[in-house]
Amino acid sequence: MADKKNVAILGATGAVGTQMLECLAERDFPVGELKLLASARSAGKVVEWCGREVVIEEARPEAFEGMDIVLGAADDDIAKALLPEAVRRGATVVDNSHAFRLDEDVPLVVPEINPQDVAWNKGLISNPNCATIIGLVPTWPLHKLGHVSRMIVSTYQAASGAGVPGMRQLENELGAIGRGEELPEPTAFVDQLASNLIPQIGSEKFEGFTSEEMKLQNEGRKIMHLPELRVNCTCVRVPVLRSHSESITLEFEEPVSLEDAREALAAAPGVKLVDDLGADVARDRYPMPLYTSDQDLIWVGRIRRDISNPEQGRGITFWCCGDQIRKGAATNAVQVAELLL
Question: Is 225 annotated as catalytic?
Answer without folding.
Answer: no
